[in-house]
Automatic annotation (TrEMBL):
Keywords: Oxidoreductase. This is Glutamate dehydrogenase. Belongs to the Glu/Leu/Phe/Val dehydrogenases family. The lineage of its organism: Bacteria, Pseudomonadati, Bacteroidota, Cytophagia, Cytophagales. Pfam families: ELFV_dehydrog, ELFV_dehydrog_N. Residues 195-426 form the Glutamate/phenylalanine/leucine/valine/L-tryptophan dehydrogenase C-terminal domain.
Length: 428
């Protein structure tokens, strides 16, 4: 007989700020600047809905393990909620709530008709077989079949998930409604309705917003060096696209360690090495190993955190040498570091602007699925780049208008759009 265990093993989050508190402290500042009324403030500070599911999954050894999963819908006033699903052993509810709210702000900043959501399962996919991950993904989809829907709530990949998991989710959801429902999820494989340009979209948006900020700061491409933390989807595509533009990438890292080359790392070689070595940079000879903590304070002009939350803190912020930080990851800067960074005169292109290229092309994928028509790669890239540039300019102008950081300006733009929509729709 199968035995039942609940798999819940969050690793200790030493020195990490609560991402929900980080998000709220910025939200509060922006709400104050906007003079947001109390009713709208109260609506926006809490999620519309949060669902916790316990999913029994038969593991390869015949035992049944029960995983805890979440789906948080922060807000749907602008449209169906949109947000990724994270598989990680450190997933916890406050993190999912923060990530869901960031999705609301992100979609509002780039002016796409979506609300915000996020999901996650506490699990360690690196120790699970493909069969175990498939059974877990299908069970999670079934448990949330009344939450998901192409006009209701549209998941996407996040850390630990990719096109493979999205294909299983789409298939399982389609079975529950008795027809193929492509638009229920984005980030699907190309052959089953995925969009050209989606894989590189987030990294491309990071690159586009970085170049836009460099123009404002009068930084020249040929004189600019970069350090990138994280070499997964976002980090490696950001590195590749910046490298192709002529920026000098001096440092990259993944969980195996950090790697430094003062003359610049050949990113094509680094990606080829990673692909040939189980997805890791460990042993990469095109650079020398460096202390991973030192990457964040290394001698570079641009810093791109593209891995996890809360890596820039009040402890290391005083030592950052970059003049520009472009946030590829969600929430990489703890709120307590904001005043230090601002006082040092470092510009930050915040996560809700810098990494919104991903949700923008996810939106294009959903539009294509609904149209039943595939766009060319050029159409995707040209439209996404324009949306990113327009959003950057709007946030930049807002920062000048109120004399505030780009981060608070991005929240002001987003909250203003959501609040105005509430005013027009009314209905409390
Ligand atoms: P991936 O899982 O593809 O990559 C994460 C990368 O970070 C991996 O290289 C991983 O190393 C590395 N990493 C993890 N922990 C550390 C650490 N402590 N120090 C250095 N490197 C570390 O995730 P994504 O690239 O998709 O996501 C990265 C971030 O970007 C997340 O915050 C995500 O929410 C955000 N984001 C992603 C979007 C997307 O479209 N994918 C869209 C918007 C935001 P290893 O592989 O060795 O484990």
């Amino acid at each position: 007989m199968a035995t039942h265990t609940v798999y819940k093993e969050p690793a200790p989050l030493i020195d990490r700020e609560n991402p929900l508190e980080s998000m709220m402290s910025r939200f509060n500042v922006a709400a104050e600047i906007l003079g947001l009324d109390e009713e709208t403030y109260n609506v926006l500070k809490t999620p519309d809905k949060q669902v916790i599911v316990h999913i029994p999954v038969t593991m390869d050894n015949g035992k049944v393990r029960v995983f805890e999963g979440y789906r948080v819908i922060h807000n749907t006033i602008l449209g169906p909620s949109k947000g990724g699903i994270r598989y990680d052993k450190n997933v916890y509810l406050d993190e999912v709530k923060a990530l869901a709210a960031w999705m609301t702000w992100k979609c509002a900043v780039v002016d796409i008709p979506y609300g915000g959501a996020k999901g996650g399962i506490i699990c360690d996919p690196t120790t699970m077989s493909a069969g175990e991950i498939e059974r877990m993904t299908r069970a999670y989809t079934l448990a949330l079949k009344d939450v998901f829907g192409p006009d209701r709530d549209i998941p996407a990949p996040d850390m630990g998930t990719g096109p493979r998991e999205m294909a299983w989710l789409m298939d399982e959801f389609s079975k529950t409604v008795g027809m193929t429902s492509s638009a229920v999820v984005t980030g699907k494989p190309l052959v089953m309705g995925g969009s050209l340009g989606r894989t590189e979209a987030t990294g491309r948006g990071v690159m586009v917003s970085c170049l836009a900020a460099m123009v404002k700061l009068d930084m020249k491409i040929e004189e600019t060096s970069v350090a990138i933390q994280g070499f997964g989807n976002v980090g490696s595509w950001t590195a590749k696209l910046m490298f192709d533009k002529g920026l000098k990438i001096k440092a990259v890292s993944d969980i195996s360690g950090a790697y430094w080359n003062a003359d610049g790392i050949n990113i094509d070689e680094a990606i080829a090495y990673k692909n040939a070595h189980g997805g890791r940079l460990e042993g990469f000879t095109g650079a020398v190993p460096m202390d991973p903590d030192e990457l964040l304070t290394s001698e570079v002009d641009v810093l791109v955190p593209a891995a996890v939350e809360d890596v820039i803190t009040e402890h290391n912020a005083p030592y950052i040498k970059a003049k520009l930080i472009v946030e590829g990851a969600n929430g990489p800067t703890a709120a307590s570091a904001d005043p230090i960074i601002y006082a040092k005169g470092i510009s930050v292109v915040p996560d809700i602007l810098a990494n919104s290229g991903g949700v923008t092309v996810s939106y294009f994928e959903w539009v294509q699925n609904k149209q039943g028509f595939k766009w060319t790669a050029e159409m995707v890239t040209e439209r996404a780049d324009r949306i990113m540039s327009d959003a950057f300019e709007k946030v930049y102008q807002t920062s000048l208008k109120y004399n505030i950081s780009l981060r608070i300006a991005a929240y002001v733009v987003a909250i203003d759009k959501v609040a105005q929509t509430y005013k027009f729709r009314g209905g409390f």
